[in-house]
Amino acid sequence: MKELNGRIISKGVVEGEAIISKSPISFLGGVNEEGIVTDKENELFGKSIANKIFVFPSGKGSTVGSYVIYGLAKRGLLKGMVNFESEPIVATGAILGKIPLVDKVNIDEIKDGDIVVVDGNTGTVKIKEQ
């Protein structure tokens, strides 16, 4: 098992399948309430982040994005997140929604479909051997 060290943003521990966006994403207008990526510029356009560990470099855009993340959490759709650099919008949404989030991680080490454990209590991301 490979372990990546990062920074604690939102506490909790979750395991799941990673889905990767190589580009920053705005949750307001970029992800709908069912967890489908609606940003036509993003490589995940049309794909669902529901019940996955969403790995992306950073967020972008409106502060309302925090409430979109919170809404996804309340509906049980967003399990966990990993960022290269969490900015306040994503961090606030994760904390409000009690979604484990770790940043300062080399996200290039994580591949689409990897099973990962996001540990927001220790600031680590573990990639399980497949």
From TrEMBL:
Single biological process term from Gene Ontology = isopentenyl diphosphate biosynthetic process, mevalonate pathway
The UniProt entry annotates the active site at S62 (proton acceptor)
Q: Where are the transmembrane segments?
A: none
Class in the EC hierarchy, top level: lyase
The pathway to which it is assigned is: Isoprenoid biosynthesis; isopentenyl diphosphate biosynthesis via mevalonate pathway
Q: Where is the Phosphomevalonate dehydratase small subunit-like domain?
A: 25-102
Tell me which InterPro entries the record gives: PMDh-S-like, PMDh-S-like_dom, PMDh_S
Question: What is this enzyme's EC?
Answer: 4.2.1.182
MF terms in GO: hydro-lyase activity
Give the domain of life.
Archaea
Q: Which reaction does it catalyse?
A: (R)-5-phosphomevalonate = (2E)-3-methyl-5-phosphooxypent-2-enoate + H2O
Keywords of this entry: Isoprene biosynthesis, Lyase
Q: What does this protein do?
A: Component of a hydro-lyase that catalyzes the dehydration of mevalonate 5-phosphate (MVA5P) to form trans-anhydromevalonate 5-phosphate (tAHMP). Involved in the archaeal mevalonate (MVA) pathway, which provides fundamental precursors for isoprenoid biosynthesis, such as isopentenyl diphosphate (IPP) and dimethylallyl diphosphate (DMAPP).
Q: What is the annotated quaternary arrangement, including any partners?
A: Heterodimer composed of a large subunit (PMDh-L) and a small subunit (PMDh-S).
Q: Which family does it belong to?
A: Belongs to the AcnX type II small subunit family.
Q: What is this protein called?
A: Phosphomevalonate dehydratase small subunit
Q: Which organism is it from?
A: Methanococcus maripaludis (strain DSM 14266 / JCM 13030 / NBRC 101832 / S2 / LL)
